[in-house]
Amino acid sequence: MAQPPEEEDEPHRRDRTGLKVLQISLCPAGSTTAQGGCLGIGQTPGQSWSSRYTMNKMKPSISHCLTLGYFVMFFYCGCTSAKCLERDCHPHTWDKLILVHHWPVTVCKMNMNDCDDPPQFWTIHGLWPDKGEDCNRTWHFNVNEIEDLLPDMKQYWPDILHSSLNSTHFWKHEWQKHGTCAAAIEPLNSQKKYFGKALDLYHKVDLNSYLLKVGIKPGHTYYQMSAIKEALTSFYGVSPKIQCIPPEEDEDVQTIGQIEFCFTKELELRNCTHLKTNSFLMQNNLKFRHEELSICNDTLTSYPLEV
Length: 307
Description:
Layout: E1 12-14, E2 20-22, E3 32-34, E4 37-39, H1 49-55, H2 62-88, E5 97-102, H3 104-110, E6 123-129, H4 150-156, H5 168-182, H6 191-205, H7 207-213, E7 222-224, H8 225-236, E8 241-245, E9 254-263, E10 269-270, H9 279-283, E11 287-288, E12 291-292, E13 294-295, E14 300-302
Parallel strand pairs: 9-14
Antiparallel strand pairs: 1-2, 3-4, 5-6, 5-9, 7-14, 8-9, 8-13, 9-10, 11-12
């Protein structure tokens, strides 16, 4: 003879999978619960649904109580999440990525505070979406996620201006300001992907090797910027953006400082445009003390070997 099912505590029932589920009663204060519904004050479990309904039309069944409870919880959590996103997350739609190379000697010339023995090759400044910054302030930088990239990071993406400090400070800044926005696409949606892809693109462009190949070398020789632009455009098939320190009042020579290559969301090279009205691009010009980088003119240009 089949045994009757084991009685369980009131707050627990088994769902169809056999797992215990906690039943939450959201019945009004002063009422009690019974199988099939919420009982009003003084109501007994033996009363029929019609009599219960007549006595207390406003007492919903427990299934209705649970449904209402889930809705309230969902609505509350949804609103809380929305507030969190509004406060901490600022997603932006961007159109292109900018791989920014800077010339360490020029960076040091712009700020001598803590700049010893800068590398004599182009290094990475950052990988920037063309729109948006600080897109997710809750997504904190974690150097452990890029541990296997650190040898390349230290060589090709060093902190030129603060070489004596913890080198991760610069990478943390780049991730929080730009990486959290770049993460909108799948190839860049983690810290390892973001920094790893920046290194990949840097090696793909291989700016240092190409400039040496065409005889554009740092030193005391001046170059016409128009010739540098033509050489780069001819080789890469796209127009990069080149920035310089403008000449001093008593000088005629600008100093090359930064070269940017632009990529589509598919990570293919594309032309860089630098409209003067684009405030985002202008605000990302390097600024140190009273000097700043701006779009190079087609005039004589210094490519310094020493600070």
